[in-house]
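B., you asked whether I could sanity-check this one before it goes into the benchmark set. Here's the sequence:
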Amino acid sequence: VLGLLVWALIADTTYYLHAAYGWVMFVSIFFWIVTVLFFVTYLLQLQLKFYMIPWPLVLMIFNTAATVLYVTAFVTCAAAVQPTSWRQWDYNRRAAASFFACLTMIAYGVSTFFSFRAWKGLGSNAATSQVSDHV
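And here's what the prediction gave me:
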């Protein structure tokens, strides 16, 4: 949802006049689409059919790449906001897009932490700990 807000807010401005917003649009749309694909994969439990793929490692790499590229998108978006813009609505949308890009960056960073723990096998939930205790 946060990534969707980023690219929707930028798309509603005259982003094509500023090259910096092209990068922000690419990062936000690309990672939004891939995140939705991963969500659908897990929702339909397709990862169980493709058991040969190391899903925790794939998710950790994806979340790390998303975090790093969202850092660049956030910095680019925040630096390109011009408070003296003659179009006030563009300024408000771009400033809001910068805010949501920061929140998205933080969310992907937290996901990176949890996917790293899952990849290393450090994380467990109540269901797996209950099953392993009784076995």
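One thing to flag: The two ends are 39 Å apart (CA to CA). Otherwise nothing jumped out at me.
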